[in-house]
Structures are given as C-alpha cells and as structure tokens.
Write a structure and sequence with these properties.
By secondary structure, the chain is an all-alpha fold. It is 79% helix and 1% strand. It has a two-stranded antiparallel sheet.
Length: 520
C-alpha cells in the first residue's frame, strides 16, 4: 500500500521535476555566460556582464519561440520526430549564426530611432539593455501562452519603447514603424496564399489523378527543383548576405543552377522510389519526406544567420559603446558575442521549443508531408518576393500564415466536394439506392475533368426546382467542416497585434527603472 502511494506521488510530481530541470539548465547557461564574460581578462564592465546575461536570455527565447516555425510543420507531418527536429534545428541554427551571422550589425534594429539623438553613451547602454530585456520577456510570455510571435517585432518594440522613454516621441522614425505594422497583414496573407496555391497545384496534378504514382513521378522532381531554386535564392539573399553580397538577379541565377542539378538528380531517385508505392495519396505523400527534411534544415540555417542579430545586435552595440565610449551606427560583433547567441538559441530550442513546435505542427490544422512541403516552400518564396518589392515581412508570420492557408484551402475543398455529392444525391433522390451508390463510386474514382463532365451532365438532366438563396446558405453551413482551429487563430492574431506595444511598454518601464538605479 505504501509503495502504491509513493508511486502516485512520484507520478504527480514528474511534470514539476521536468520543469525544474529545464529551469535549472537555463539558469546554469545564464550563470555560465556571467562567469565566461567575467573571466575574459582585463578590466570587464559589470554592465557588459549584465548585458551578456540578458543577451543569452533573449537568445534562449528566440530558440524557444521562433525556431518552431522552421521545423514545426515537419514534426506535425511526421517527416521528423520531435527529438530529431530539435537536433537538426539546433545544429543548423547554430551553424547559420556562427558561419553567416556576420561581422557587423546595426546598433539600432531596423533604424526605427536615430542614435544621433541620444547624446549620452550611458543612456544608450541603458536603452539597449531595456530593449533587449523587454523583447526577451515578451517572447517568454508568448512562449508560455503557446503563441508564435515575431522576435524581430519584439526587439523593434523594445527599441521603440525605450527610445521614446529616453528621447521623447520625436526620436522615432514613424514611417519605419508604419512599414513594420504593415507586415502584420502582408506576411501572413502572402504566406497563406502561396502555400495554398502550391497545395492546390499538387492536388490538381497528383492526388486528383487516376494514376497518382505516375503523376508523382512527373511532378515531384519539378517541385523539388522549384524548392531548390527557392532555397538556393533564399539562402544566398538572406542566409549568406552578411558574408556574400549579391543582388536579387544574381541570387535567382544561382538558385536556378541549383534547381537544374537537383532536378537531374531527383528524376531517377523519385522513379525508383515510386515503383514501390501504392497508388494512393498516402503512398505518394512519402515522396515529400526527404525534401521536407532538407527544407527544415535550410530554413533553420537561414534563420540562425538572420535572427541571431535580434539577440546579439543590442549586446554588440553595448559592447562597442563600452569599448569605445561613443555611439556608432554600426558595431562589430566579437566571436564570443556570436557564440552566446548561437548557443542560446540551441539551448532555448532544446528546453522550451517543443511547446511551440507542437502548436505550429499539429494544433492549428492537421498536416501531412505534402502540406508541410507547401508551407516550407511558401516561406522561402514569400521572402524572395517581398525582398524584390521592398515589402516588410516577418518569417514567423509567413510560416504561421502558410499553415492557416493550407488549412482553409482544405476546408474549402472539403465543402465543395460535399456540395457535389449533395447534387448527385439530389438528382438521384427517386432512384434505387444501389444506382446512387454506383454513381458515387464512379464519381469518386473519376479524374478531375471527368468529375466536372459528370456534374455538368447532371445539371443538364436535372428537372427539379432550383434551390432558393436561403436554402443554399443553409446548405453551405451544413457542408462547412472546420479543419482549422479558430481559437488558435484568434490567440495568435491577438499576440501579433500586441507584440510591438507590449514589448515597447515593458522597455519604457525597464528603462526608467534602470536609469533610476544607475543615476546617483
């Protein structure tokens, strides 16, 4: 009896022990940063030690929240296990940060405030510390709430709020702020439309065909080549732009070369793999697994190269001011600062990433490899299009918007199919049931073109009274099947809208607090 009670207690406290283990590991990482920076030799500023600890905390929150967008769809579609996705993302995020994170970063993220209007170096340091800590706190809150938000918007809001607290409303570049606000709508819409368009293309060319395997042999190499072009261009433009400067035309040319190579390799590989597949959607779905794993890795690399600046940019700016005693528009990034950012992202992903990975991968809508492939492809193409036209976009908003896009397309297609079946049932309402079943079986097995022809023939033969407008609206409600979780949509949209104001408010409060502590 005593053993049973002990076992119950053990089971009840298991979750708490895991949480304490995660928290303890995170604190050890922060303490390790403190000891490392403090033991670098020479005279070390206490402000730099504190800033490095905050930078590590910010990097962990980026890993916990933002990386889910790169690997969540792959996990949700079961192309990768959760453990495999975390290992892959940690390696490629850290690799992207260290290899292509860059040597120089702007001291003011996105140029939303002017450093020239902050004359005092100490005030600048306090401002950047407040911005960094505010962005990290907001990301932490969003992660605990299960809402994927933009880390760039978090740090932008922090810089804006602390900047206004330090220099007044006139210090902000409101045109830049307006562009960032526009991305709240542009990013998810573009991501959702492009992802839905690719999913519809796959359905029309593969899953709606009678011989799905033969269609897949024709189309999957083409889709793999499109993915190679998109990611080749994306990596050159965004992942490697700090070490290799090219314009968009050159980047697209390089991507095209990669696409030709991938297409020539993919054709025989896909043909061999397809020979062993069943002629079904589930069978051809397996052909998208390998491209999806590569997409998750490349997205993680590009994300590490780009978004590490959100963690180490303010830290590098503080380091530059403390070392030189002046405020510059750009700051060099020492290797130790980049290592703090890279390791922080990896640690945060390993400790707290699973929560958001599950949210993006399975709690918004059901994903398979084809849908997840479309989401990853949409993320790369949207960034390319947005960069070409100078549109401000958020990678987080793109990826999540793409998830919603494929979910809503599935809802629409399911409702459309239900309406077709209803038309068939309505036309055969006086016929023998076996005749109806036979027609439905032929209809389901028919190609898309044949389905359309069968429905047209039914409409020509139909002699019954057409439905009224009210009856059609009632039927639409009956056919509608919710394949997208509405509560997730509302929660994420609300989090996006308040990210900049929330982190800005936190930053202003923190700036006044730090200034009050530091002033004699």
């Amino acid at each position: 009896m005593e053993l049973e009670k002990i076992a119950e207690i053990e089971h009840a406290t298991k979750g708490g022990r895991k949480e304490f283990l995660r928290l303890g590991t995170a604190l050890l990482f922060i303490v390790g940063i403190m000891l490392f920076v403090g033991s670098r030799g020479g005279e070390v500023s206490h402000m730099l030690i504190i800033a490095a600890m905050i930078g590590g905390y910010m990097a962990m929150n980026i890993g916990a929240n933002d990386v889910a967008n790169n690997v969540g769809p792959a996990v949700g579609s079961r192309a990768l296990t959760l453990t495999g996705a975390i290992l892959l993302a940690a390696i490629f995020e850290a690799g992207g940060a260290l290899i292509a994170g860059g040597d120089v970063v702007g001291t003011i993220q996105k140029g939303i405030i002017s450093p020239d209007l902050i004359g005092d170096a100490d005030v600048f340091v306090w401002l950047m510390m407040a911005a960094l800590l505010a962005g990290a706190l907001w990301l932490n809150i969003a992660t605990l709430s299960g809402a994927p938000v933009s880390t760039t918007h978090s740090i932008v809001g922090g810089v804006l709020g602390a900047g206004i607290a330090a220099g007044g409303w006139g210090i902000a570049d409101w045109a830049k702020v307006g562009q960032i606000a526009a991305s709240w709508l542009i990013s998810p819409l573009m991501g959702g439309i492009i992802a839905a368009a690719f999913l519809y293309l796959i359905k029309r060319t593969i899953t709606y065909q009678n011989d799905k395997v033969a269609a897949a042999v024709r189309m999957v190499p083409v889709l793999a080549a499109v993915m190679a072009w998109a990611f080749g261009t994306y990596l050159v433009m965004k992942g490697l732009h700090r070490i290799w400067q090219v314009d968009i035309a050159e980047a697209m040319g390089i991507g095209l070369g990669v696409a030709v190579v991938v297409f020539s390799i993919a054709r025989p590989v896909v043909a061999r793999a397809a020979a062993q597949l069943e002629n079904s959607g589930r069978g051809v779905n397996r052909l998208f697994t390998v491209p999806l794993v590569f997409a998750a890795a490349l997205l993680s690399f590009a994300h590490g190269a780009n978004d590490v600046a959100n963690a180490v940019g303010p830290l590098a700016a503080i380091n530059e001011v403390i070392a030189s005693g002046r405020i510059a528009r750009e700051a060099s990034i020492p290797l130790w600062v980049m290592v703090v950012g890279a390791l922080g992202i990896a640690v945060g992903l390993a400790l707290y990433g699973p929560r958001l990975i599950r949210t993006v991968g399975s709690e918004i809508t059901e994903l398979n490899q084809m849908r997840a492939f479309c989401i990853a492809l949409s993320a790369a193409i949207t960034v390319i299009v947005a960069t070409h036209f100078g549109l401000p976009v958020s990678s987080t908003h793109i990826a999540v918007g793409a998830v919603f896009g494929v979910g809503f397309l599935r809802e629409y297609l399911k409702a459309s199919y239900a309406r077709m079946v209803n038309e068939i049932e309505h036309h055969h309402q006086d016929a023998d049931r076996s005749e109806v079943e036979a027609f439905l079986t032929r209809f389901e097995a028919a190609s898309l073109a044949d389905k359309g022809a069968m429905l047209k023939q039914l409409k020509r033969d139909k002699a019954s009274t057409p439905l009224s407008k009210k009856e059609r609206k009632t039927l639409k409600k009956i056919y509608r099947t919710e394949l997208v979780k509405r509560s997730a949509l509302l929660k994420i949209a609300a989090a996006w809208l308040i990210t900049v104001p929330a982190s800005g408010l936190f930053a202003a409060i923190l700036f006044f607090t730090i200034r009050g502590i530091m002033l004699p």
